[in-house]
């Protein structure tokens, strides 16, 4: 499953075209389509990295949905968030669980 992203160009193409290029072509184009690790693993790593930084906005919800679409079950996601809570922080886990519940209910 190839990842294609246009959000950079759609939202910032006129204002910050170089950033849009890096976002769409490099981050989501080259990096996300690198086959050295599976898409499912890449999605889990991304959720963990965002959780560890305390980023619990729409970008995390987007990546949780990507993980779900890549085959990460609700049970697996709950285990990932629980494990990460011990290293990244309990309050962060609460915030992420709230997003996960919303995404997996859809």
Unreliable residue runs = none
What's the total helix number? Answer: 6
The best one-word shape is globular
Count of folded domains: 2
| Approximate strand percentage | under 5%
Number of strands: 0
CATH top level of the largest domain is Mainly Alpha
CATH fold assignment of the largest domain = AhpD-like
Q: Can you give the mean pLDDT? A: 93
Portion of residues within helices: over 70%
Following the backbone from N to C, one meets helices and strands in this order, namely HHHHHH
Give a structural overview.
There is one protein chain. 75% of the residues lie in helices and 0% in strands. By secondary structure, it is an all-alpha fold. It has two domains: 1-36, no CATH class; 39-105, AhpD-like (Up-down Bundle), CATH 1.20.1290.10.
Provide a brief overview of the structure.
The protein is mainly α.
SSE arrangement:
Layout: H1 7-12, H2 17-31, H3 39-53, H4 58-69, H5 74-88, H6 90-105
Features:
2 domains, mainly alpha, AhpD-like, 106 residues, 6 helices
């Amino acid at each position: 499953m190839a990842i294609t992203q246009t959000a950079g160009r759609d939202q910032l193409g006129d204002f910050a075209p170089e950033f849009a290029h890096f976002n769409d072509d490099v981050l989501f184009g080259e990096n996300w389509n690198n086959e050295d690790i599976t898409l499912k693993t890449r999605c889990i790593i991304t959720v963990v990295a965002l959780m560890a930084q305390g980023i619990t906005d729409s970008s995390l919800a987007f990546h949780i949905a990507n993980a779900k679409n890549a085959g990460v079950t609700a049970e697996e996601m709950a285990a990932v968030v629980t494990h990460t809570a011990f290293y990244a922080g309990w309050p962060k886990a609460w915030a992420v669980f709230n997003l996960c519940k919303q995404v997996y209910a859809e």
